[in-house]
Specification:
mainly beta; seven-stranded mixed sheet; binds copper (II) ion; Immunoglobulin-like; 492 residues; binds CU-O-CU linkage
Length: 492
Amino acid sequence: VFTVVALVLGGLFLWLWTGSQVSTVGKESFGNELAIPPLAPSRVENDGTRVFDLRMQAGEKEFREGQRTSTWGFNGDYLGPTLRAERGEKVRVRIHNTLGEASTVHWHGMHLPAAMDGGPHQMVPAGGSWSPRWQVDQPAATLWYHPHPHGATEEHVQRGLAGMFLLDDDTSARLTLPKRYGVDDLPVIVQDVKFDGAQFDRGHRVMQSVGFLGDRTMVNGTLSPYREVTDELIRLRLLNASTARTYDFGFSDDRPFALVGTDGGFLERPASLERVQLSPGERAEIVVRMRVGERTVLRSFSQGSYDKYADAFQRRFGGGDDSFDVLELRAADRLRPSSELPSKLRELEIPDGENAVRARHFDLKRSGINGRKMAMDRVDETVTRGTTETWTVRNNNGMPHNFHVHDVQFRVLEVNGHTPPPELRGPKDTVFLPNGTTMKLAMRFDGPADPDTPYMYHCHLLYHEDQGMMGQFVVVEKGQRAGSPAAGTGTP
Ligand code: C2O
Ligand code: CU
């Protein structure tokens, strides 16, 4: 009897834990044309500053015919426009928060002063405004923006607050890559969702320790999307803007594609792959070849390409072991010829760890990083401006986590002692760490010193972040001490 009870309870436990695994493969109708977020209008002031306006607002969107869902968005009902600026340009974003509560806008992947970062210390009160300004000083990349209020990031992103921020430079201008926005260069913002009647169901499953997991995906706010394409080569800027789910992207017919960029910009050279795995917050730029009149589906497969590094069984506990038909590409009957991809893209600007002055270690646990939960008034790490460090991040917590560092683009030196695979060889600001993974990262802190204003590092599974899997670091001048960040700012 005891054995039977134990088996039943064990089965129930496993079902509750893993029961969110779903598949939409073969079930999508691809009946909706993919929306492309508009490029945000901007104006250039006399001193050359490019100024954007973002309004955080509540709205309603008809994701499904006849069903009006309550949403949040930037300058619209859901998601936000694509901001675009060039390296060297001064930018300013005038943010106006018309929501009924305080929030923030964080520039994920951007190298900028801590006070402009939009983390939990830069709250924009309900009805209030905030106008961060900085000079773009990093290579061309696909970055993004989203709220970061401590304790409520999962909810604010899920309601619809997210958008892309593209950076261009001389290299991106010179390279023969598809670059006509919305034509052969497509933003692909992937989110998982669930509906309860007309409204979003944002609830977590009992025992669902990674946070919210939806039962279907959408791209750029479009359910069951298709896109007609008219060029031979199509560049997809993939962004995993989901709050907890990790995807393993590829094509339904297993065609190879060229990976040309990671979080912080181009790789040294294109890498031919069949899968690229992205955990929440990560980006990949891929180029896929289309043949006249054909259709292919961007799919998320159920087996992670990281299984070679991590225990495949453990990985299942993340809800990553499921599959989705994400976006159908339909090639026109005539395709514009594209130039061949360049064999060399750029010299990387990420440090190789050679002159690292300091090695730090981070142990990821659901209960906190290095045994501590996030505290707004505690500085966890103090780094010296202009130095390189190695950060070794370990996950032995029995569930998946990832790791994001503000302000920097780092190089992955090692994954469990191995040379990293191509998708981890470019500039990165977020990496996936399934259980049993240790990664050694090299990063350089080039921003201005500000001992009183911290940057964040955290798990980008947003429920974990909200629950305190986050820490703070400040950049100081040599010999300077960390100040004291205000405890009062932010709403834990
Ligand atoms: Cu995408 Cu700390 O955030
Ligand atoms: Cu986590």
